[in-house]
Amino acid sequence: MKALKDAAPRVFWTDRPGAPAYHPLDGRTTADLLVVGGGFTGLWAAVLAKEENPACDVVLVEAHSIAYGGTGRNGGFISDSLTHGLSQGLKLWPGEMDTLLALGRENLAAIAAFVEAHGIDADLRLVGKTTVAVAAHHVAELKAAERLHREHGEDAVFVGRDEMRTDVDSPTYLGGLRLRGAGGILDPAKLAWGLVRVAEKLGVRVYENTAVAGLERSGAKVRVTTGSGMIDAAQVLLATNAYPSPLRRLRNFVLPVWDYVLVTEPLSASQRASLGWAEGQGLTDAGNQFHYYRLTADDRVLWGGYDAIYNFGGAGSEQRDATHDLLARHFFETFPQLDGVRFTHRWGGMIDSTSRFTPFFGTAMGGRVAYALGYTGLGVGASRFGALVGLDLLARRSTPRTELRMVRRPPVPFPPEPVRWPVVEVTRRALARADENGGRRGPWLGLLDRFGVGFDS
Ligand SMILES: Cc1cc2nc3c(=O)[nH]c(=O)nc-3n(C[C@H](O)[C@H](O)[C@H](O)COP(=O)(O)OP(=O)(O)OC[C@H]3O[C@@H](n4cnc5c(N)ncnc54)[C@H](O)[C@@H]3O)c2cc1C
Question: How many CB atoms lie within 10 A of CB 415?
């Protein structure tokens, strides 16, 4: 497609100056706490550990560069939900929902306060989001969701087609659910870069291009080997998310689902005006296969989602022409008034899906190793909570977080290959069929729903 012809195969967020750079680890060292992974989970863990105990010697290692993973590749939607949305939380843990909501709100407020206190230019705008109805059955679904959100104290308003189109103008909209106060949007790379600078200032030693190859017990410590280094750490926090975990058993719980994104050139003033979109909130559509889209600080549109691809064995590519073409087509169907706009960036990344769509946590090696992962496409905010849980587990302390069933129980594992791929593929097709059939989920999804399992992005 012409609009994609000049799109660079790079991530918009990190394809800008300003990235901090760190040497790889060469040789041996020690640490009180070793954090593995330089995404939001690892960065928050390093910062929070230092804030709690400045004397703690913290080392963070990252296989590539800071924000190389989902953290630098995402849509930049930040949510106060820890449970992949309210309805999923209610389905899984109705008795704990009030606590989960309170902890999620506290977490979002703490992120906003941190950004403010450290003067991080992360373009954080707590403008909420709108979910739009683009098929007739979405209207009833969004009206039901409006009731649910209101019952849980959220500022939710369903608007009909005309009001929706006055807010943001697309001929595909049939209505929308506006949520204010439950989150917003930010610039994820700038938040990650801000976090690592704070971590460094607090005394965290950061090493990039340092992939952990193995972990083993060594007396009272954990010996961690990297390409050209070795770290003897009293405690280790694994924040490797959808990447193959150094702790092999975790690979059964996270499905790496490839998700793709486009970013346009900056819109002209008249193109920008043709959209309305005065509040600049993030938007998603309501289907199982959904798009997410938002404006950037320089008036580009970031447009991603829809095709969630799982390849046999979890392999994948950051570039997928068929998906990028499909996304571009959907973009112009949604905003025909932007005909002629070009895309400047195209990329993909791994969504960290668990079978219950929420993160999970735990420990290994006699409590010396903890992990927090599997945010299922909603980890920009929840990763700070994940880091806190990881630190709680290492400290063996009981907190309102560690009492949660979400923390105490793991999700149902995915089956191993060669069964995994066909099962996911059947599910993916069933989700697409449900979108085409007025939302009716059919027997396969009905069965998965009965067991409370699935996959999502
Ligand atoms: C395309 C896309 C769009 C998304 N959109 C949103 C969104 O809009 N809102 C939202 O809330 N969430 C979104 N997400 C999800 C969100 O980005 C993640 O949940 C979040 O960034 C998770 O952070 P993390 O630190 O746990 O993982 P990551 O950011 O993936 O970090 C893990 C890091 O560990 C490193 N690593 C892996 N293995 C090793 C090893 N052996 N040794 C050393 N380092 C290692 C990796 O290189 C990586 O940098 C999206 C994800 C993708 C891919």
Answer: 13
What domain range is 440 assigned to? Answer: 420-450
- The answer to whether 149 and 86 are in contact (CB under 8 A) is yes
Q: Which atom of ligand 1 is nearest to the CA of 65?
A: 49
Q: Strands of 239-389 (E only): list them.
A: 255-264, 282-285, 291-295, 301-305, 343-353, 360-364, 369-373
274 falls within a domain? no
Is residue 227 within 8 Å of residue 210, measured between CB atoms? yes
| Structural domain includes residue 23 | no
Asked if residue 457 has its Cβ within 6 Å of ligand 1, the reply is no
Domain-located, residue 344: no
pLDDT at residue 123, as a whole number:
98
> Where are the alpha helices (H) located in 74-223, listed in sequence order?
86-92, 97-117, 136-151, 161-167, 188-202
State if residue 69 touches ligand 1 by the CB under 6 angstroms criterion.
Answer: yes
Whether residue 428 lies inside any domain: the answer is yes
> Is the C-beta atom of 215 inside 6 A of ligand 1?
no
Count of domains observed in the chain? 1
Q: Does ligand 1 lie within 6 Å of residue 374's CB atom?
A: no
Closest CA to 69 of 359, 383, 416: 383
Residues with pLDDT less than 70, the chain: 455-457
Distance from the alpha carbon of residue 237 to the mean position of ligand 1, in angstroms: 15
Model's pTM, two decimal places? 0.97
Q: What is the number of the ligand 1 atom nearest to the C-alpha of 39?
A: 25
Ligand 1: nearest atom to the Cα of 244: 38
Q: Is 36 in the pocket of ligand 1 (CB under 6 A)?
A: yes
Measured in Å, residue 333 CA sits from the centre of ligand 1 at 30
Output the CA 69–ligand 1 centroid distance in Å.
4
| Token pair for 371 | 């992990």
Q: How confident is the model at residue 434, as a pLDDT?
A: 85
All residues at 6 or more sequence positions from 359 whose CB lies less than 8 Å from its CB, including other chains? 82, 372, 373, 374, 375, 376, 379, 382, 386, 406
The Cβ of residue 396 has, within 10 Å, a number of other Cβ atoms equal to 10
Position in ligand 1 atom list of the atom nearest CA 79: 11
